[in-house]
Design goal:
- The protein has an eight-stranded mixed β-sheet, with helices on both faces. Strands 1-4-12-8-9 form a five-stranded antiparallel β-sheet, with no helix packed on it.
- About 3% of the residues have low confidence.
- Strand 13 and strand 14 form a beta hairpin.
- The protein has nine helices and 20 strands.
- The chain has two domains: 127 residues, Immunoglobulin-like, CATH 2.60.40; 261 residues, Zn peptidases (Aminopeptidase), CATH 3.40.630.10.
């Protein structure tokens, strides 16, 4: 009798349950929707995106139809499409590890993000638990950061520090979108100030890097004494998103055809935003004041601690090698958690990628001043601290490390 009553109640609930609907028609939205099981309240998807526009590992959906307190399951499998690597089609799919964080990222309003419970990993899939609130639910690989978030950050910065913060447009992309940036500089003898350049999202799917950039901006605009001193003494440019086109279309960006942004740093860039960044950096170097260039990324799924990528030391001047060692030591003393920096950097070179000389950090090493520091910070995305709070903390700690490096005398 109890079993019959239970089945009856279950049938009534199914009759009254709203239809689950999944959409991706918004900036950054991307997924292949394989199935929606209305009875089991399961949604089966794969990463979307065109492999010619980068690795198919990013996914971001909106789900409608979940009642408040109602549970559902998002089942994710890897893309079946052939992916590119080292500049050519591999003829096989990308490892699903790149698409499967231990927890998905979810939001009730499309702006404030939190992690789901841990996903249940099986051989070819991972299942994430969802709970409805009665309204739409946005679910993604990681916390999205689109041009909307860039504009909000620039507006907040200009409002908070109108004497220092100046939004600007670095370039217009090949697809007609503005690449926006923020300049922080005090009035005065600007050409005597050391120049600091930070950009994120040369690979569109690495959304955590933009949140690190945001954390750096928040620290820089704060009342912390070191932040105030850095604002006064340096000229700082931050670009939260370099590959704006593929962020908007929900593509991966990395290994895009003909090559991605971080393989485009050579004498004739394919992407206007890379050419514009080169022009700015050349101008700083021509004035002898290019001090720091940092490229923000997210690494592989098994890299559970942030780390720096740097160029071969034998290609640096003695002064640049000393500056890099000093900065890396300061960074290790500041990036202390919850995402703790691995103090040992990794070195790029011919074995890393055939286009390694066209990676931004190496281009800076080849075209900067003899004292210029160039490095790439990879912030872990596959941990319980890989959320907006964790990323922003890394950004604030990075700001403190840069201040310690520039404001304190070297050896």
């Amino acid at each position: 009798m109890k079993a019959i009553l239970f089945l009856g109640l279950l049938w009534l609930n199914l009759l009254h349950a709203a239809e689950l609907r999944v959409s991706t028609d918004f900036d950054g939205g991307s997924a292949t929707i394989d199935a929606i099981d209305q009875g089991r309240r399961e949604i089966w998807i794969r990463p979307g995106g065109n492999p010619a526009r980068g690795w198919p590992c990013w996914w971001f959906v909106r789900i409608d139809g979940l009642a408040a307190g109602e549970t559902a399951t998002l089942v994710l499998r890897g893309s079946e499409r052939s992916a590119r690597n080292n500049g050519k089609d591999t003829g096989k799919p990308l490892s699903s590890d790149w698409a499967m964080p231990i927890a998905a990222t979810v939001s009730d309003d499309g702006g404030s993000w939190r992690q789901t419970g841990l996903g249940k990993r099986e051989t070819d899939r991972i299942s994430y638990p969802l709970e409805g609130t009665g309204g739409p639910l946005w679910v993604a690989w990681g916390p999205p950061f689109t041009p909307r978030e860039t504009e909000a950050l620039l507006t907040e910065a200009e409002r908070a520090r109108p004497d220092f913060a100046k939004p600007l447009t670095l370039a217009t992309t090949r697809e007609g979108r503005p690449v926006r940036a923020l300049q922080i500089v005090a009035a005065g003898k600007i050409k005597e100030k050391p120049a600091v350049w930070i950009h994120a999202r040369q690979h569109a799917w690495e959304s955590g890097s933009s949140w690190v950039a945001r954390g750096f901006v928040e620290w820089l605009l704060s009342d912390v004494e070191e932040a105030e001193q850095l604002r006064e003494r340096a000229q700082i440019v931050i670009v939260p998103i370099m590959d704006v086109d593929r962020v908007v279309t929900g593509d991966g960006g990395k290994e895009a055809a003909p090559h991605d942004h971080n393989r485009d740093w050579h004498q004739a860039p394919h992407y206007p935003e890379v050419a514009a960044a080169q022009d700015c950096l050349r101008a700083f170097a021509a004035e002898g004041r290019l001090a720091v260039v940092l490229d923000l990324h997210n690494p592989a799924s098994r890299d559970l601690r942030p780390f720096f990528f740097v160029g071969p030391p034998d290609l640096l001047s003695e002064k640049a090698r000393g500056n890099r060692e000093r900065f890396l030591g300061l960074a290790a003393g500041h990036l202390t958690g919850p995402l703790i920096l691995d103090p040992k950097p990794r070195v790029t070179g011919a074995s890393y990628h055939p286009l390694w000389r066209r990676i931004s950090g190496q281009w800076v090493n080849d075209h900067g001043n003899d004292h210029t520091l160039a490095a790439c910070l990879e912030t872990s995305w596959n941990t319980r601290h890989s959320n907006t709070g964790g990323y922003r903390t890394v950004g604030r700690q990075l700001g403190a490390a840069i201040a310690a490096y520039l404001l304190s005398p070297g050896p």
